[in-house]
Amino acid sequence: MTTQELWSMTMSMFKPLSEMTVSEWADRYRRLAGMGSSEQGKWHTDRAPYQREMMDAFSQRGVHDITYMTGAQIGKTVMLSNMIGYVIDQRPGPCLLVMPAEDDTDNYSKERLAPDIEATPVLRDKVFKGNESTIRMKKFPGGFISMTGAMSPGGLKSRPIRYLFMDEVDGYPASAGVEGDPVLLATKRTQTFGTSVKRVKTSTPTLKATSRIYKEFLHGTQEEWEVTCKHCGEHSQVLFDDIRFEKTEHTINGNQKEYEVKSAVWKCPKCGGTMSEWEVKRAPAKWVAYNPSAIKQGHRSFHLNAFISPWADWKAECKKFLDSKDDPEMLKTFYNLELGLPYEAKELTATPDLMFLRREHYKAEVPTGVLVITIGIDTQDNRLEYEVKGWGRDEESWGIQYGVIPGRADEESTWEQVDALLDREWRLENGKTMKAAVTFMDAGGHFYDSVLEHCNQRRMKRIYPVRGDNKATGTLVHHTKSTKKGLNLFVLNVYVGKRDILYNASVTEPGKRYMHYPDDPDTGYDEFYFRGLISEQERPVKKRGTYVMEWTKIYERNEPLDCCNYARCAFKGFKIDLDSFERRLYGQPEIKHADTSGKPKRPKGLLSGGIKI
After folding, report:
1. Whole-angstrom distance, CA of residue 522 vs CA of residue 404
2. CB-CB neighbours of 308 under 10 Å
């Protein structure tokens, strides 16, 4: 920082504070460029009235911390831009904007901030041009705004900061390199400015046990937006539990339910009267604090769900719930992005002993209900372990065989046994046979090159190499190419997969997501298998000052869990026409033939939607 910059910044601190609030400033001066936003032109806070108090908390005397825990489509980013514009024009000082990754800050700067500065005359005239400003640094008289990613310890530690903006804090890593919690690192930079500091944290929440934004929300005033019922005149939150909707449903592709929401209304929890979406979003409303004493510590916190947003449609929101209600990972996303709430997974009740005791008699190698078979193979230094799984509708599954192939993954004799497994025909009760439709094989460990090459040599048998990714969220199956030779490779989110498997193992009634196992001792499903299946637990672990969720072993041998994970991903990662398989297996006329050419499909991008086989 030059002497001139320091002097300019110091003098700005003695400038009389503007009495204009952020929302007043935005209504008077702000112009939306339209890039990265669905709207452009003059800003109107009345478009989303809940934003007024949320923004004005920034210009409120005595308030130093502002927290937004919200769903998507609320307008968090544009409110941050309004506060940044207000600082530039009305209360200049050093600012820091932190986003999860540096790419996020670059995209925000180029697509949102820079165009909006150009579109707003009072900002365009103040932000320095040319070499004075860069993508990650905008300078103006009396201050600057520096933008960095949460993984950059240098960007989080360099200068004293008066205004700190932290966007999507639940997406931050546990540590900025080896320096520690990025939230704490950035917060330390505000200590120099004492009571004039403003710290803004925003995010959609994630898991309740580890969510940063949820903890911040609890420390603040815990304000909720409450609307006035036209029937009783009382104020209430618009909760999803009080939304009443009518729906129709039908089945497509044999196993996928398609929903259509016909209507949706809000039922007042106090009088039972109903109001339409149009009425609710235009009804008189106000913020109500459920922890008002937090204002003494200068901390206001706000929570909003998507049902309040003018950019969200209630029927579409209800459909998102219906599409996600039977999938734990999708339901978590609905809670986080639509309800703006942290997700608390239900307690998983499966134990090795219970799983072993519920084994059942199969009348054939492949019991009735199985429509497709997949295989998951785990690679160890001196052996391969595998599981053959049968799949029916609604992700009901049947264990068929668990076994071990002795030998190294770089030995031809080992691959001869893999070929025998891939070529094996499994017999149904009606006498017909079926082979595995897809096989996923672990390419991790010491045999990466060998597994990639051998799998690609056998691609006509639909065996694909996979590697694991341990992110707590994200796509279950992602197709890519190996960096070395450009060969097929699938990346699996094994973290999410484990959560889904243990959820399914806790289902106690045959049907949707239930996991069946045979009692025949020759199939390999003994006590050791079930200990290996229920071998890990998801627990919050403290790392460098913050909690993260991790899978921890409760039993050393976890190969059964890995094999099951690979086999399930092989089923979930491809669009499999179960109707076609059912017609073929049970002798009914084929309407549409499945592809049996053996040629692998050409996958593109994310495969959570799947490849049809």
Report:
1. 12
2. 22
Sign of CA dihedral 292, 296, 297, 299: positive
Whole-angstrom Cα Rg for the chain: 28
The encoded tokens of residue 207 equal 């898991």
Task: Quote the CA–CA distance of 15 and 90 in Å, as a whole number.
Answer: 9
Residues contacting residue 455 through CB under 8 Å, at least 6 positions apart: 441, 443, 463, 464, 465, 487, 488
Residues in the chain: 613
Q: How many Cα atoms within 13 Å fall on the side-chain side of residue 343?
A: 22
* Residue 131 amino acid letter: N
* Strand-strand pairing, 243-252 and 256-267: antiparallel
The two three-digit tokens of residue 240, written as one number: 């999803």
Q: Residues 538, 550: contact at Cβ < 8 Å? A: yes
- Contacts of 281-287 with CB under 8 Å at 24 or more apart are 281/308, 281/310, 283/227, 283/228, 283/229, 283/230, 284/227, 284/228, 285/49, 285/50, 285/225, 285/226, 285/227, 285/228, 285/235, 286/225, 286/226, 286/235, 287/50, 287/53, 287/223, 287/224, 287/225, 287/226
Q: What is the pTM of this model?
A: 0.77
Q: Which residue type sits at 264?
A: A
Residue 132 — pLDDT band, cuts 50, 70, 90?
Answer: confident
Task: Note the pLDDT tens digit of each residue in 464-518.
Answer: 999 988 776 678 888 887 666 667 889 999 888 998 999 999 999 999 999 999 9
Burial class, 323, CB count within 10 angstroms (exposed 0-12 / middle 13-18 / buried 19+): middle
Confidence of residue 36 (pLDDT cuts 50, 70, 90): low
Q: pLDDT at position 543, please?
A: 67
DSSP SS3 for 42:
strand
**Least trusted range by pLDDT, from 5-14, 200-209, 236-245:** 5-14
Type of residue at 66? I
In the numeric block, which tokens belong to residue 492? 């699996």
What pLDDT does residue 607 have? 33
